[in-house]
Amino acid sequence: MTLARKVYVVSTDLGWSNLVIAGLSHSFKTYTFFTENSVNDLWNLNSDDIVIYDRLTLGNPSIHLLSPMSRSGGWILANASKQDLEGAQGLIYLGWCGILESDFTFERLHKAVRMVASGQLWFSREDMSHSLRNIVRNQIQCSCSMEVLGLKYELSSKEQKVFMYLVQGFSNKEIAEQLNVSLSTVKTHVSHILSKTGKQSRAQLSLLMIE
After folding, report:
1. pLDDT by residue (tens digit) across 131-166?
2. CATH class of the domain defined by 146-210
3. Contact 170/91 with Cβ under 8 angstroms?
4. DSSP string for residues in 96-144
5. Coil, strand, or helix at residue 206?
6. How far apart are CA 62 and CA 39, in angstroms?
């Protein structure tokens, strides 16, 4: 007997979570839905499981050092900002399976879930093509996680958070605002990250996710 696919809707807004489940349950009748208010317990998921992360109430996933690649399952970033869309290539490197802009989350959620459930990604064609070119160019498969990188390069937890923002294309000023620290502190973290990883520029850091 085939087990029903599990879908976890993660948000601190229970009303939003219930609306998502109410909408999806009509189309995905064999799926089992769960609500979570944090990602703390979402480890060692089955590869068929789907996680819908509410960016609006939980904030940027980098705050939680969230690397879906190390947790398994198909992760969808819902209610994403335009800034998230601009950093979509970094999200792909981190293992995200899809991204939904805030204004179109409910409109496109059904299609996104269906695509991810079938093993496909829900990103723009340009973002996926760029990421695939990088993988082919390096002739390696994505197998790295933030946890592995942190251990390999001895990055502190704060440096790991800054790293995850960097690969999403955030500027130093934007990172400082997200983490509520000074600009000089961010610059120091970036300098340490480049020194520890042996990279010469921020642009080279994304390649570490596929090395």
Report:
1. 666 655 554 444 456 777 888 889 998 998 898 888
2. mainly alpha
3. no
4. --EEEEGGGHHHHHHHHHHHHHTT--BS-HHHHHHHHHHHHHHT-----
5. helix
6. 12
CA atoms of 145 and 40, how far apart (whole Å) = 17
**pTM tops 0.85, yes or no:** no
Nearest to 79 by CA among 63, 100, 52, 98: 100
Domain boundaries in the chain? 6-136, 146-210
Across 60-88, average pLDDT: 89
Question: Right CATH number for 6-136 from 3.30.1490.20, 3.40.50.2300, 3.40.50.300, 2.70.50.60?
Answer: 3.40.50.2300
Closest CA to 57 of 14, 6, 108: 14
Instruction: Give residue 55's identity as a one-letter amino acid code.
Output: R
